[in-house]
Every structure is written in structure tokens, then in C-alpha cells.
């Protein structure tokens, strides 16, 4: 297979999905895939056996979820445009408004639809200001019970999303208790509550059964159906970005240039200033660099058992979340193909990209 390509390995996806299924069974919560994180629909047939549907952040994601992922389709956007509403309603089971003003603006049009409102609890867990939903002056959801109360009869659910890569169950538990203290009276008037994504419950050692117990208790005490919206947790560690070394040089450090670009193919790492991950180890230190013209197009510094030479193949780990959905044509660098490794080990190319795709992205 010609590199670069994202390799989605179903045998590495499966353990995440099995944990999701266990959580659903033991807690009663429903799990919706957050398409903003991962929208590679060629594996939706498998994922939909373990999950209840999708949630979205735009009209196009709503339509993709409805078209490609059996089950429930939740439609959320930070702001809906009037012209989007008919298609949003036609393609979703629930529509979630970000503000009371949006809800009132589209009240008549959406009257026959199941409706919800995003609530910002003002507490969050995020190591990144950029991804902190409760950052100062956050536009993400209504903050005050006083603003929500007058519109509460127009909706049947709330969506809270205030976690980001949160692997600390006690912190989650504590924040949920704070949410109940502040919004409990309103929550008990609802039929369903989404607690969003950002809970790293498929990670190694996460106390899944404590989470299940907490969700079940929350649902029981408030008499609501709970939803979770996992993105990263659903696909973590399932995928690699397969690349080839094109050139090497020494400039105070050993540098290897690969046929990919962090800017174009793993943009989140650059945005959040994180290193890529490599499975190898050894005593040979190499900096792995992208082939775009950006001086800082660097995947990271890694150790290998042998020095690298042109033609060597490398697997950049954990390359599913917020990668394929954000890939771009910067520098016209060859966009990685998408390959699926089936459970029997066979590999199939599900999407390749050509010069025509590059040219068609602009006019
Ligand atoms: C409303 C909402 N739900 C779910 C998610 C998915 O989060 P994660 O991929 O961290 O699980 C996000 C992330 O932006 C979100 O904003
Ligand atoms: N690995 C660095 C942080 C990634 C942030 N995750 C994506 C965004 C998140 N779901 C959000 O709530 O904005």
C-alpha cells in the first residue's frame, strides 16, 4: 500500500466499542458518536452495533449521521442559520439549541420536534484553554438557571459538555454533583440529559463500573434518559498514520523528513502543541519532520533501534481523533488515503485522494 495512509485497525477499535457497550448495558446510558472527532463512515457499520447513533456540530454532520449511521441522530450547532433549519429537522431526531434566543427564534419552525438546550455549568475539566467549554465568556450554552427557566417548557432535554480528555472519574463525579446542585430543579423537569463527550472512559484503568453506577444513579434520581457523546473515547488508539521516510539529514540532530505533514494530516497536535506518538524504542534519536514548508512541521522526537534511512516505514500512533476530519491540502501535500484493517487482518483501501481532489477543493 502506498503511503501516506491512515490505517484504521478494527481489532484495535473493538476494545473501545466493547467498553462502550458494557457501559450502556450497566448504566442505561445511550452513546452517540461525536462526528466532529471522527466521521470516517466506512467503519460506521461496525460502530453502530455498539453505539446508539451520532451527534453533530453542523448541518452536514447531521446529514452524514442520518445517512451513514443507523440509530438516533442528534443535531447540535453553536448557531443554526435560518436556512438550515428545515434540513436539520428533516434529518434529526432531536435538535439542540445553544442559546435560549436560538430556541425562541426557531420555536415555531421546530415545534413538532424533540428539542433541547445546551447548558454551560461553568465548571469544566480541560488542560487546554482552547478546548475549555467553561472558559471565561464562553459562548457554549446558557449559563444561568434564570435564563433557562422561562424556556424550560419548550424543551425536553439539556446537553452539558464540560469535559475534555478527562481520565479522572472523581473529578467527573464532583462536577456532576455541582451540576445537580445548580441545575437539579430544571434537570428534573426534563426527559433526557446529554453529558457530552470528553470522558476518557475507554482508557487503561478507568473505573468503568463506578462511572456506570454514577450515571445510573443520576438517571434514576432525576428520572431522565442519559446520553453520552464520546468522540475520542470511541476511537482512541485504533488508528495509525503510515508514512515513509523520504530524506534524512543531520543538523545538530538527526532529522528524517516523511511523506506527510503534521500541519495537514494531524493538525490537532500542532494546535495543542503536543508530540505525535511512536511505538518504537531504542537508543537512536531522530526528529520526525513533515514535508510541508512550515518550519515547525515536526511530529516529534523519538528513539529507534536503528538509524533511519530513506524508504523506512513509520507508524504514527493514535491517529484517528480530530485528524481525518481536519486534514487539509496545505502545500498540496498528498492527502493520506484511508485503509481499513479488517478483523481477519486483511487490509482494504476505502478512499484515495488524487490531484483532481486537490484541484476540486478550490476554483
Ligand atoms: C458537544 C460535544 N460533544 C462531544 C464532543 C466530543 O468530545 P471528545 O472527542 O473529547 O469525546 C465534543 C468535543 O468538542 C463536544 O463539543
Ligand atoms: N489532545 C489535545 C486536546 C484535544 C481536544 N479535544 C477536542 C475538542 C473537545 N472535544 C472540545 O470540547 O472542544
TrEMBL record:
- Key word Lyase present in the record? yes
Ranges for domain Orn/DAP/Arg decarboxylase 2 C-terminal come to: 237-319
The prosthetic group or cofactor this protein requires is:
pyridoxal 5'-phosphate
Reaction catalysis annotation: carboxynorspermidine + H(+) = norspermidine + CO2; carboxyspermidine + H(+) = spermidine + CO2
Q: What class of enzyme is it?
A: lyase
Q: Say yes or no: keyword Ribonucleoprotein present.
A: no
**Superkingdom classification of source:** Bacteria
The EC number(s) attached to this protein equal: 4.1.1.96
Keywords, alphabetical: Decarboxylase, Lyase, Pyridoxal phosphate, Spermidine biosynthesis
State the family named in the UniProt similarity comment for this chain. Answer: Belongs to the Orn/Lys/Arg decarboxylase class-II family. NspC subfamily.
How is this protein named in the record?
Carboxynorspermidine/carboxyspermidine decarboxylase
Per the UniProt record, the source organism is Arenibacterium halophilum
Amino acid at each position: 500500500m502506498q503511503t501516506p495512509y491512515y490505517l484504521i485497525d478494527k481489532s484495535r477499535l473493538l476494545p473501545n466499542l466493547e467498553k462502550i457497550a458494557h457501559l450502556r448495558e450497566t448504566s442505561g446510558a445511550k452513546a452517540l458518536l461525536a462526528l466532529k472527532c471522527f466521521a470516517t463512515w466506512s467503519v460506521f457499520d461496525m460502530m453502530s452495533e455498539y453505539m446508539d447513533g451520532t451527534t453533530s456540530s453542523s448541518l452536514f454532520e447531521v446529514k452524514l449521521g442520518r445517512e451513514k449511521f443507523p440509530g438516533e441522530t442528534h443535531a447540535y450547532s453553536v448557531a443554526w442559520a435560518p436556512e438550515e433549519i428545515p434540513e436539520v429537522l428533516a434529518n434529526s431526531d432531536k435538535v439542540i439549541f445553544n442559546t435560549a434566543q436560538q430556541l425562541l427564534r426557531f420555536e415555531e419552525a421546530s415545534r413538532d420536534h424533540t428539542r433541547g438546550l445546551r447548558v454551560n455549568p461553568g465548571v469544566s475539566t480541560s488542560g487546554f484553554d482552547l478546548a475549555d467549554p467553561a472558559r471565561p465568556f464562553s459562548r457554549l450554552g446558557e449559563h444561568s438557571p434564570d435564563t433557562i427557566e422561562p424556556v424550560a417548557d419548550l424543551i425536553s432535554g439539556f446537553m452539558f459538555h464540560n469535559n475534555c480528555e478527562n481520565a479522572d472519574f472523581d473529578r467527573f463525579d464532583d462536577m456532576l454533583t455541582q451540576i445537580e446542585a445548580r441545575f437539579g430543579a430544571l434537570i428534573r423537569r426534563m426527559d433526557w440529559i446529554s453529558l457530552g463527550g470528553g470522558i476518557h472512559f475507554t482508557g487503561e484503568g478507568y473505573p468503568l463500573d463506578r462511572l456506570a453506577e454514577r450515571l445510573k444513579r443520576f438517571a434514576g434520581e432525576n428520572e431522565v434518559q442519559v446520553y453520552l457523546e464520546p468522540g475520542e473515547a470511541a476511537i482512541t488508539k485504533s488508528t495509525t498514520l503510515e508514512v515513509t521516510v523520504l530524506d534524512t539529514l543531520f543538523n545538530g540532530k538527526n532529522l528524517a523528513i516523511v511523506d506527510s505533514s503534521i500541519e495537514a494530516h494531524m493538525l490537532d497536535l500542532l494546535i495543542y502543541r503536543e508530540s505525535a506518538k511512536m511505538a518504537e524504542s531504542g537508543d537512536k534519536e531522530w526528529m520526525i519532520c513533515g514535508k510541508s514548508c512550515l518550519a515547525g512541521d515536526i511530529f516529534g522526537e523519538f528513539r529507534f533501534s536503528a538509524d533511519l534511512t530513506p524508504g523506512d516505514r513509520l507508524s504514527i500512533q493514535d491517529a484517528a481523533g480530530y485528524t481525518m476530519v481536519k486534514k487539509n491540502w496545505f502545500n498540496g501535500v498528498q492527502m493520506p488515503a484511508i485503509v481499513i484493517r479488517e478483523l481477519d487482518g486483511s487490509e482494504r483501501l476505502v478512499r484515495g485522494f488524487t490531484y483532481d481532489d486537490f484541484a476540486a477543493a478550490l476554483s
